[in-house]
Amino acid sequence: MLHRILLLSAVLCSLAHVGIRPIILDEQNVPGYRSVLSQKGLDYSKGVGVQVLQKLLVNLNIPSLSGVFNEPVIGDVDWHLNDIKLISIDIGQSSVTPNPNSGITVQLSNVNGQVNSNWDYTRRDWPHISGSGSAVTKITAGATMSFSVFVSNGQPQISVTSSSVSISNLDIQISGGASWLYNLFVNVLHDQIANAISNALRSAIQDNTQDNLNNILKTVNLKQSLADHLVFDAEFIPSPTYGQNSVSIPQLGRTYVDGSEGQFCPISECSFTPLPSDPSTTKMYEVYVSEYVANSFMYAANSSGLLAYEVLPKDVPASSLFKLNTSTFSAWVPALQKLYPNTAMSIVASTTKPPLATFHPKGANVSVAGSAEFWVHPDNAPKRLVFTIIGNGTIGTAASLNGWNLVAKLGDPTFTFDLSYSSIGDFDPQTLRAALRFLLNYGIIPGINSKLAQGVSLPTLQGVSFTNPSMTWSNSYLSYRYLGEVLPLVYCVDTPPP
Question: If pLDDT is split at 50, 70 and 90, which confidence band does 327 have?
C-alpha cells in the first residue's frame, strides 16, 4: 500500500546535513554506506503504494450501527444498520512529504468510495410494524498518515504515529421506506454513519499499513555469507532522520569472520569519511559506498587467511612456457639449479597486513604489502624454504553493478620488492620480476577476483526493482544511482511474506 512509499523511503534512508570531513565515530556504528531516496523516488513509490492501498480497503467491513428513533406519528422505533461494507474506493490525489527530524507524512485527497449496507426497523409498541431494505452511501474523504522509523537490533521497524480520516461529503440513498425513514437516515444517522466509516477507514489504514510494512521489512537481508566464512553485515544504524526532499539511512556495510562478530576493522586501520546525505541527481534511488566497505572486507579476508595462496606446479597452465621448477628459475637464480637440479617448486604468497583501498574520481587503487616464500620439493625429502621476497604494490580496481550486486575486479599491479631471506646465498631479487608477475597474474589476483566476482548484495526488498543504473567514483566513496520501476510487492496483500 503506501507500504511501498514508506517502505522504500523510510526503510532505505536517513538525512544528515554534513560536509565531507574526517570524524571519529563509535566503532560499533561506523556507517559504510548510505542509501538515499529522492522526492522523485518517493513520488513514484507513492503511486505504487496507492494502488495497493485501494486493493486493501475494498470490501472493508464496517461495524454495525443500531439505536432508537422517536418518530412523532408512530412512536419509538428500534433501527439497525448491518452488513456495512466498502465496495469501491478511488484515491484521486496523494502526496508524500519527508518531515525533517520526524518521519514521513502521506496525504490522500479526493478519495471517493461507495458503502453498501442493509437496514431494518421495528416499532416498539403494538402493532410492531417493521421493515427492511438496503442503502447505498457515496462518500468523499481525505486522509493523513504520519510514519516514523526506528531501529531495533539492527532491524528497521515502522510505526504509524498518527492517522486521520475526514469525510467531506456523504450522500445516502435508501430503497423502500416512507419519508420519515428517509429523514431518519439523512438527518439523524448522517453523522453516525460518517463517523463509523471514517473510524473504520482510519483503523484499517493504520493497522494494515504498520503490520504489512513491518512484515515486508523482515524480508530485508541484513547479513549475508560471503566466501570462506566471511559475513557481510548491513544492519541499520539508529536513528533515521529526514530532509526536505529526500530520505536516507546509514548502514554498517562491514565484513567480519563468521563467529567473531566483535572483531571487525577498527577505524585506526579502516578510516571513515562521512558520506553525502543529499541526492546528487534527479534519479529515484542513490547509494553511496565508502572506502570503509572495501577496507573492512579486506581486513576480514586478511584475518581469515583468505589472502594467502599456495601456487603448485599443477596450477600452472599446461600451455605456459613458464614451469614451476628449478630449471625454469635457473635463468634468474642460477644457484637453484646447481643445488636442487630439476626440482619441483612451490610459492606461498600472503599479505603481511590488510590491503588498503583508496577511492578517487577515476576509480580505485588497492595498496598491498606481502611476502612470497619460494620452496623446493626434493624427491624423497621434506620441502625446503630457499628464499623469501617481500614487497609493496598498488593494484588498480574496477567496480560494476550486476543487478543489485556490487562486484569488483583487480587489474594489473605495480610493485617493488626486496630479498628478505635466502638459504642459497645473496642474489638480485629484481631478476625475479617476471616470476613474481607470473605469481600475481596466475595466483593471487585470479584468486581474489574469483571471490570479488561473487559481489555483495546490498539490502533490498522482495518485489522491489530499480533499473538503469549508473556509477560515479569520487574521493573516498563511489555512488550508484537507479531510475526506473518499483515493482509491486504483491505478497503484502495476497500472501504473507516468506
Answer: very high
